[in-house]
Specification:
Strand content of chain A: under 5%
Order of helices and strands of chain A: HHHHHHHHHHH
Shape of chain A: globular
Largest sheet of chain A: none
CATH superfamily of the largest domain in chain A: RNA polymerase sigma factor, region 2, helix turn helix motif
Number of domains of chain A: 2
CATH superfamily of the largest domain in chain B: Immunoglobulins
Structural class of chain B: mainly beta
Strand content of chain B: 25-35%
Distance between the termini of chain B: 37 Å
Radius of gyration of chain A: 17 Å
Shape of chain B: elongated
CATH architecture of the largest domain in chain B: Sandwich
Number of strands of chain B: 18
Number of strands of chain A: 0
Number of domains of chain B: 2
Oligomer: heterodimer
């Protein structure tokens, strides 16, 4: 019996060959996590950035050479770069500067989004986004993206030790967060 | 394909367990809302799909073909130069007489020996197509073979296919077992190109299916003896996808537009339904990823209906998105 990693590798291989069903499995699996990661980064255009991330990934998929873990890291690295690009563009916009001080996007979503979305997932993402930027990104990449410590360290240009420390501190802070403790009481 | 969390060795904590479950939960309905658009993106990003033509000989062609000519009719008088040369190559094997290359547009009739064009350089095809007096497709004389064609659809969604049915006849009798070539001229493209072929059945009917049409194009059939059909123009309608994203400002929503089969630089127009009439609100140009964005105000009460229109160009037809309702919160 193959492992999940083997399964992911197989799906990835078929997607690279143009198999639409395989691509949708990849997308179903990774797109929600990509959106959550981008929201943790404070990306107020997470949907747009995620779309552009997939566009770039699909465009370059035939040239991608690696397994499931490498693909996951590659996809989130693209997303990170696109989020940075979007952030730079936002800074150039006066409107963006004004809006940046208003409130985090998670607090402005309409009611129907709260119903459609998993409430606990949104709260969890908001809680992670409330950490310091370094801790938030490490937690997001380790937990949401599912990258290992070495991959996160490479992506962020940090040492593995620094990543572990940031993760430990971030999770400790989260474990004391009343919103996180309330998650267990919320139905999705 | 659930996500694990590799080498995460933090001490177990019920609160953190709940957090991790929430962060790694399956996608919600809203998160997965763009699934169809993602699939379209995947399809369109696999490179321009290589068209594969399915040539099927059928007896139920919708078009009537009247063949009234002899084999002596020249291709040269009836076909654009590149089409002509391809036809020589395709039909030479079944004994179709050839014409000198200088013949296109001249009205000269073929009387020469068969000439097979082994290859046709693209540049040659382009220049020839640009200058050739393309035929009307109507048979010039009662003696000329006649070939007609119809398309099942003349407006199709982008990346869809179409079916072309034709009939070849001579002296009122069907021509069976004859290979007929379908040619296409893609809008803004270099000229006529071979798009497929099929052999007529006992009724002289032939059907050719073309798939993955992403740009407006004209089609015609060409057969032996100078037979060429009229031109059928197919208009491609690109889908216009719209996603509504709540903006940072409380009363602002953002509309992200994606038109995968329209080229960057094409305009998209935001319209608002007012008094039963669509009124123009603004215009944007599609960017690198075929994306454009509008920002709209959320009304204090009630709702506003929007749609996004893609005006027709030479490359595609007019298209519009679904209606988007922006309602007071």
């Amino acid at each position: 019996m193959g492992t999940e990693a083997d399964d992911f590798d197989d799906v990835l291989s078929r997607a690279r060959s143009g198999d639409e069903t395989a691509f949708l499995r990849l997308w179903d699996h990774l797109h929600p996590r990509l959106l959550r990661y981008l929201r943790v980064l404070g990306c107020d255009e997470a949907d747009d950035v995620a779309s552009e991330t997939w566009l770039q990934a699909v465009r370059d998929l035939s040239r991608f050479d690696g397994g499931a873990d490498e693909f996951r890291g590659w996809l989130f690295a693209i997303g990170r770069h696109r989020a940075i690009d979007a952030s730079r563009a936002r800074i150039r916009s006066r409107l963006r500067l004004m809006s940046a001080a208003v409130a985090p996007v998670a607090d402005l979503s309409p009611v129907e989004d709260e119903v459609l979305d998993g409430l606990s997932t949104r709260q969890a993402v908001a809680a992670v986004a409330g950490l310091s930027p370094d801790q938030a990104e490490v937690v997001a990449l380790r937990i949401i993206a599912g990258l290992d410590t070495a991959a996160v360290a490479r992506m962020l240009g940090k040492s593995p030790g620094a990543v572990r420390i940031a993760l430990h501190r971030g999770l400790r802070t989260l474990s004391e967060d009343p919103r996180v403790r309330a998650l267990e009481e919320v139905d999705r | 394909m659930s996500t694990d969390v590799p080498d995460l060795t933090e001490p177990a904590d019920p609160a953190l367990d709940g957090l991790i479950r929430a962060l790694t939960a399956d996608g919600t309905a809203r998160e997965l809302a763009g699934r169809q658009a993602a699939l379209e993106m995947f399809r369109s990003s696999r490179g321009r799909p290589r068209r594969h033509r399915l040539a099927v000989s059928m007896s139920t062609a919708a078009a009537a073909v009247v063949l009234a000519g002899g084999i002596a009719a020249a291709y040269a008088a009836a076909l654009p130069a590149p089409v002509q040369h391809i036809a020589y190559r395709m039909l030479g094997t079944i004994g179709v007489p050839d014409t000198p290359r200088s013949a296109p547009g001249s009205g000269a009739r073929s009387s020469g020996t068969p000439h097979l064009a082994a290859t046709i350089p693209p540049a040659h095809r382009t220049s020839a197509a640009a200058t050739c007096p393309c035929p009307t497709g109507s048979p010039g004389t009662a003696a000329a073979p006649n070939l007609t064609v119809v398309a099942v659809l003349t407006r199709i969604p982008a990346n869809a296919g179409d079916v072309f049915s034709g009939r070849l006849a001579s002296g009122g009798r069907p021509e069976a077992g004859v290979r007929v070539q379908l040619f296409e001229h893609v809008a803004n493209g270099p000229g006529w190109q071979a798009a497929g072929s099929a052999v007529t059945d006992h009724n002289g009917d032939v059907t050719v299916t073309v798939t993955h049409l992403t740009t407006n194009a004209s089609f015609r059939l060409a057969g032996p003896g100078g037979a060429v059909s009229q031109t059928v123009r197919i208009t491609v309608i690109p889908p216009v996808y719209v996603a509504v994203v709540p903006g940072l400002l409380a009363r602002v929503d953002r509309l992200t537009i994606w038109v995968p089969y329209a080229p960057a630089g094409d305009a998209v127009v935001l319209q608002e339904l007012s008094g039963g009439v669509w009124r123009r609100v603004g215009e944007r140009l599609l960017g690198q990823y075929h994306l454009a964005r509008f920002t709209v105000l959320v009304p204090l009460s009630g709702h506003v209906e929007y749609r996004v229109v893609l005006p027709a160009t030479t490359a595609h037809g007019w298209s519009a998105s679904r209606w988007i309702r922006v309602a007071a919160q």
